[in-house]
Amino acid sequence: MQEFLQGRIWLRELLPFGQEAVDGLIRDGLIGTVPGITTVRKWHGGTASRCNRCLSEDARHFHAFNCRKCGKICRYCRHCLNMGRVAQCDELLYWSGPDLPPAGNAVLAWKGRLTPLQERAAGELEESLLARRTHLLHAVCGAGKTEILFGPVHRLLSEGKRVCIATPRTDVVLELLPRFEKAIGETVIHGLYGGSGHGDGLAGLVIATTHQLFRFREAFDAVIVDEADAFPYSFDRTLRLAVRKALKSDGVLAVVTATPSPSILSEIGREGRRSVIPVRFHGHPLPVPRAAPLFGYRKKISEGKIPERLKTWTLERLRKEEPFLIFFPSIPLMEQCLPLFSSLDAGIGAVHASHPERRSLVMALREGRVPGLLTTTILERGITIPRLQIAVVGSEKTVFDRSAIIQISGRAGRSPEHPDGEVILFHHGITPEMDAAVREIRRLNLEGRKTFGMPAL
Amino acid sequence: MECLLCDSPVSRPPTWKGLFTDRGKSRLCPRCEEGFVPAEGSPLLGDWDGTPYEGALDAAVSLYVYNDAMKNYLRQYKFLKDAALAGVFSDAIRQAPILKRRKAVPVPMHPERLSERTFPQVEEMLAFAGIPFVPLLEKTTARNLGKMGREERRASEPLFCLAENAEVRQADYVLVDDLYTTGTTLHHAAHVLKNSGARSVAALTLIRA
To answer: Which of B77, B118, B122 to mutate to test the interface with A (most CBs of A within 10 A)?
Structure first.
């Protein structure tokens, strides 16, 4: 039972063990209990409910009902409902006995080579993690972030520490898991995301979505948050609290991102270290997005016409047979556009978060079976397709903030053979966020040129 | 306000009525609402002809068909025990004509299952809709009909008895339940009420499977 419960915080009803065994361990003081929901005093003197699993204190997340189990008016948390309901009369259990070290003796099986910049960053990260100092790894899209992590993660594992790589997106977990399994041998690695199961044994390395960290408590010596700027981590306070909760009291936090937001910077704090990799692994500069006016595009589209500039751009891509992505701010607008684009080329498809064939459509684009895709911001990260050309329609909308535009631009020119690609922002008025994104990319390119002697823009 | 099912923000134009009452304000976003398809026609009661339960039910109405949206709703409401979802169909239930001039009787749960579920799902729905109801029945078996086959269900032992101190009058009753599958539950319940002197017994279910 210790293997399962150590570092976790779990609803008593959902524990896969007999209740008598659990009661025995509670009496022996090896398992601690807390009520599911507690009432906390706020700074303004009022009270609020707090869910002890997800740490939400938002009144909208709690619902009170007449409970027939405890016979009272009982509150439960709707925020983490999908993990099994936590109500006021439920008990959460955690392991409070002495900790076991994770099994196995990790071996670094990865034999690739790092660029000098990657190597420097990896060294700095490892140093910070060992000195228990928060660290920010700011590496541009396509800098090879995962490879940088192998060394430091292996070092921590070989010292018998438990490490977690957390990321807001399930897609990223699915991508990282096989790479780490290949790179680091002789250790238990768990990949946790919604619907993944809980894994067997005591894992040294856990690769999980940030949501899954709700289920952990004082578990890890180090948590590395990857893609920390992605939705919903950047918006949801409880996810940041979950990361803190999953850390041991002397644990250390590291953040990996391409676009550090002010909230990430504040999380790192003053004493945190920072390493910056301003160039991609192939040494070429990031493509700088170009703004192009597309005034009144919404009206034009609802009239059933593709705005002229967008049409020219798309036809040009089709003629040159370059794969392209066109980002839209919302699903309805994208679906309105799909038939219009289909009349240009019947192969053009559209993807969004709940699209059943999302993966296969992206594969088709990569293999050249479809000429291009319309998409929402769901494809803003994690996509690597050579020669990809990018257009953003309605880049003035709030979903396209600074970090989204930087990420989207990072999709272009990722392969060493075709290091340039076009990123064009079709807008109905330039926003400060667009300016900030362009400025940031220019700054990074400038910095990169200094370190590497790259050609000027 | 956020949608109860998908958590996306819902904004509707303010109305004068909305200032004074929550009635008629949907707790769902339009997208989620579209997923629920109203059922047409009524369940076939003729299936029960020739059994002891023939004629136990005088009428039956279901509000929605059992589709994926409904399946997800029931999963969240009953399996994840999300009691807040009891109010989702309040308006539809309140407007059901079959409830007019009839006394509502919720189909009860077995006490054991009730303490597992922590709330009685049908009674919660009626309470949210503001419909007065009388708990006349008691469930005698904790077995789950959902795990039985069609024939097994029909041949099962009586599922209900009258509750203690229950007073069945010479009146019109309407049984309320969440699902109508083969109608076993409702026929058994109606049979008990009829035998105790009810004038007529109708049934209202949220879903017809």
So the answer is: B118
Look at domain A104-277 and name its CATH class.
alpha beta
Residues of A in contact with B6 (CB under 8 A): none
Write the DSSP string, A113-174.
---HHHHHHHHHHHHHHHTT--EEEEE-TTS-HHHHHHHHHHHHHHTT--EEEEES-HHHHH
Q: Homologous superfamily of A290-452 in CATH?
A: P-loop containing nucleotide triphosphate hydrolases (3.40.50.300)
Chain B nearest CA to A85, separation (Å): 6
| Torsion angle defined by CA atoms of residues A330, A335, A340 and A343, in that order, rounded to the nearest 10 degrees | 130
Where in chain A are all domains bearing CATH 3.40.50.300? 104-277, 290-452
Percentage of chain B exceeding pLDDT 70: 100
A84–B118 C-beta distance less than 8 A: no
**pLDDT beneath 70, residues of chain A:** 452-457
User: Does the domain formed by B38-208 have CATH 3.40.50?
Assistant: yes
B9 reaches A (C-beta below 8 A): no
CA distance B64 to B186: 17
The three-state secondary structure class of A325 is strand
pLDDT tens, A222-232? Answer: 999 998 888 78
Entry pTM: 0.84
A81 at B interface, C-beta within 8 A? yes
The domain limits of chain B are 1-34, 38-208
Range list of H helices, B8-107? 16-20, 30-34, 68-74, 90-94
A310-367 pLDDT, tens digit each: 999 999 999 999 999 999 999 889 999 999 999 998 889 898 887 878 778 888 888 8
Alpha-carbon distances of A151 from A98, A158, A179, rounded to whole Å: 29, 11, 13
Two tokens, residue B113: 């299952």
Tell me the C-alpha distance between B105 and B163, whole Å: 12
